[in-house]
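Why do we care about 3D structure at all? Because function follows from shape, and shape follows, mostly, from sequence. That is the central idea of this module. The next example makes it concrete: a single protein chain, its amino acid sequence, and then its structure expressed as tokens.
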Amino acid sequence: MEIALFITILLAGFYLAWNIGANDVANAMGTSVGSGALTLRRAVLVAAVLEFCGAFFFGSHVSKTMQSGIININLFANEPLTLVYGMLSALLSAGIWLQIASYFGWPVSTTHSIVGAIVGFGLIVGGMEAVYWKEVGFIATSWILSPILGGIIAYNLFNLIRNKIFYTLDPVEATRRWIPILTFFVIFILTLVIIFEGLDNINIHISMVEKLIWTFSVAFFASWMSYLAVKRISPSQRHHTEIIYSPDVLNSLEKAQKYLGKVQTQTKGEVQYTVSLLMEEVDLLSKQMGQKFEFDSNHSEYENVEKAFSYLQIITACMMAFAHGANDVANAIGPLSAAIAILTTGAVVAASPIPTWALALGGIGIVVGLATWGWRVIETIGKKITELTPSRGFAAEFGAASVIVFASRLGLPISTTHTLVGAILGVGFARGLGAVNLTTTRDIIISWAVTVPLGALCAILIFYPLKAIFS
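And the structure:
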């Protein structure tokens, strides 16, 4: 019976990893596909390599949190198999809900699913004292902070790109200056993670100075290569008669609309009517000028700028895939590792090591999930929240990946879905509220709210039949 239980746990872990790939990895790669920087086929190939590397070399930090940082597993010391059944029910519960959500193209949070499932099992079996409520509260807080942080970074980065490149008299020349700088920071962050953490995970230890030298060298080399690449961009052919407005003009018009609105609410009669006419004129002028800043993709110079950013977005897609594999493999591997440790040792261990083969199993499952069902959620993330171009997609991916990499180093299982959606919204809000599909955003937020209680309920419903079968 233990062999059957062991095999069932492995299958459940792979099943959840498959569904993580179908749902969450699609979120990670959706911006690249939605902006046109990557085709779906190429996105799968990129994710296959980077997701696996992130999970295998960097995934153990977060796996320890998911394994024993949510419920007090020591309460099950006298009944270790009960904990095994609970972790198995959590894996199956999260996997079933993710499969349903992926089928309908709903971008839900796998982290929500598995944390809710573990908490639900802990409550029904061990009571209130079985759950580390402080830790759960810390994790829940990260679900709120991560989209905010991702949105802030993406919002400011996209504004920087617009002001320093698109709003200049010579966007192509500005691209030549800024692309190497942006490339340096992207590669520096990614290499920093790989060298500082990945090498230690495979027992390759070098000094701090050597790590910094390698990190800086790789980033500088990538920056230099990007400089050579953007030098080939054709120079601008802009007509000198074309007028370029400062972005501050749009901001001033928006402020004028707000002040006129206040005047309208505080006046009556002829004055109120006159103010309403002024508001219509200002609104029309604002929209007309705003359209001048939504650059025509057929214009040769802006097409060249976006092409340059498409290459940079491929780099951020790699960074995002690596960061996602590092963080979200824990959702499948943490509970699996805890259950396997109990079956092999016969005792509850508070912090059992994460087996290398378990990280490999999770990485493979994530890649298979993306390759088979990932396209369903890619469409929602890449096309239905806000219109994406390579420059916008780059800002969103860089903002999200930065937050995810930082969180995985802290052992904090944040939601990739939350972070990326927050970053995409940040890019959308930078272009104005009208650039965001609020209906899709509302539906996504509702799906987040439903996921936690459903994960807990499903785990409870699955636990007792599992216990009856294997007892």
